Amino acid sequence: MKSVILYSGGKDSTMAVYESLKNNDEIYCLLSVKSRNKDSYMFHVPDIHMVEYCAEAMELHTIDIITDGIKEEELNDLEKILTRLKSKGVEAVYTGAIESTYQRTRVDNICKKLEMKSFSPLWHRNPVEYMKELVDLGFEIIITSVSAYGLTRDWLGRTIDYNMIEELIELNEKYGVHPAFEGGEAETLVLDAPMYDQKIVIDDAEIEWAVDSGIYNITKAHLEEKYDYSLNE
Question: What is the DSSP letter of 153?
Fold first, then answer.
């Protein structure tokens, strides 16, 4: 099946790529929606420019669209590009939704209207088990934004590992923080994954902090080969 992935570079949309490949889909492209509104209801904003690095690391094509990020109206921009992609033979759309009914139902409705298939392979997965699965699979994921009580400045740039997951379980019990950030508590970036042929290395980043939330703004990065091909010679 020819599919597109609604893609941000974060853990959930990258896991959607992984699931699509597991299904033996032909991924036509990663569809990156870049919102001018930092508070977009639908689309990931922090470090969205890093999508290009993620795509190159996976050797996948990207299509970028720009939206003003106005609630509900931004869906028109998504529908327009999906209409065009359908004419190219694309049959299915994947999202990384876990519990966001807002995101999933709106993508589902557009796909239904266009007679395309809509897949949310992570839907209602246990969040703690899901986070552990990401670590076990070899996903290298960093935190690129935080906006919830209990998530302090020092979380920015941190890598998700078992220790962090245990901290998230405690924060969930204490403050209600979603262990997989599905409530918008944090955003992420995948630096490496099983389907990456190269990994992303961050050379420089700036922390932008305002009262109780912040962004890990990556200003310089490069791709690095994961394998020493000379060993096979």
Answer: G
Q: Any alpha helices (H) in 62-219, and if so which ranges?
A: 74-86, 101-114, 127-137, 162-175
Q: 150: which 2 tokens?
A: 């209990």
For residue 127, what is the DSSP state? H
Give the pair of three-digit tokens for residue 73. Answer: 């109206």
33 or 147: which leads in pLDDT? 147
pLDDT, residue 66, reads 77
At 223, the amino acid letter reads L
Cα separation, 105 vs 70, in Å, equals 17
12 exposure class (CB count in 10 Å sphere: 0-12, 13-18, 19+): buried
* Segment 90-115 mean pLDDT: 93
- The average pLDDT across 166-176 equals 96
CB 131 within 8 A of CB 165: yes
